[in-house]
Design goal:
Strand content: under 5%
Helix content: 40-55%
Radius of gyration: 19 Å
Largest sheet: 2 strands, antiparallel
Order of helices and strands: HHHHHHEEHH
Distance between the termini: 26 Å
Structural class: mainly alpha
Number of helices: 8
Length: 221
């Protein structure tokens, strides 16, 4: 995340900082294609999917074709971490893929969608003998939609929450219909709106517009 910020800025020692950051990221590349530091004995390990998504996006932003193979392998890792079970978590992404737990959330799904959209062009340089890699975008969109409050949510309608079971911001009750819903909040609404746009959902789509309007109505100076 810091590398992405430096790349877009004008730090006086930009090249030095970028080179050090890239060197560290490359030192974390693993044989399975992931980019993370393993934490033995800890469920979720080194947040492998989350960190891989962020790092592959940063490497892509550097713009050096020498990193294409690393990014291609990382894409395969992230695509392989998409949960496609038959429950409420289907279509989303979690912090890791190795524990095989049924868990996904909107934050990880946003970072995964952003990473796969931003790095899609490296598939054009993948060897012809290899199958091109991508995620199931239809299921991704269906998952994102689950975290967006619908009109019955009243004042929370249009906003997003964290995941199907853990709202992080508590609940609220629509006074008009007495419906209890997970509260929408800012960071997840930002993540949900961008995730939809990375999935090629038009900015004019009601799902994107309602998220934008929810956020705009809660902005303050």
């Amino acid at each position: 995340l810091s590398l992405q910020a430096v790349l877009q800025g004008e730090h006086p020692k930009k090249k030095e900082v970028v080179d050090k950051a890239v060197k560290f990221i490359l030192s974390c590349v693993r044989a399975d294609g992931g980019i993370y530091v393993e934490v033995p004995g800890r469920k979720g390990g080194g947040l492998s999917n989350y960190n891989t998504a962020i790092c592959m996006t940063a490497l892509h932003d550097v713009g050096d074709p020498a990193f294409n193979k690393v990014i291609q392998d990382a894409r395969k890792f992230v695509a392989g971490s998409q949960y496609l079970g038959d429950d409420e978590y289907k279509g989303g992404f979690g912090y890791d893929k190795d524990t095989q737990r049924a868990y996904t959330d909107l934050l990880n799904t946003y970072f995964s969608a952003e990473a796969m959209k931003a790095t899609a062009d490296v598939e054009d340089t993948r060897p012809t003998a290899e199958k091109k890699v991508d995620i199931n975008w239809d299921e991704t969109v269906k998952y994102i939609e689950k975290m967006q409050n619908k009109p019955a949510a009243g004042e929370d309608a249009g906003g997003f929450y964290y995941n199907p079971a853990d709202p992080k911001a508590g609940t609220s009750t629509n006074k008009a219909s007495n419906v209890v819903v997970f509260r929408s909040y800012g960071s997840m609404t930002y993540a949900g709106m961008l995730a939809l746009m990375h999935a090629n959902i038009s900015r004019d789509d009601v799902r994107v517009r309602s998220a934008f309007e929810w956020a705009a109505s809660r902005w303050s100076r």
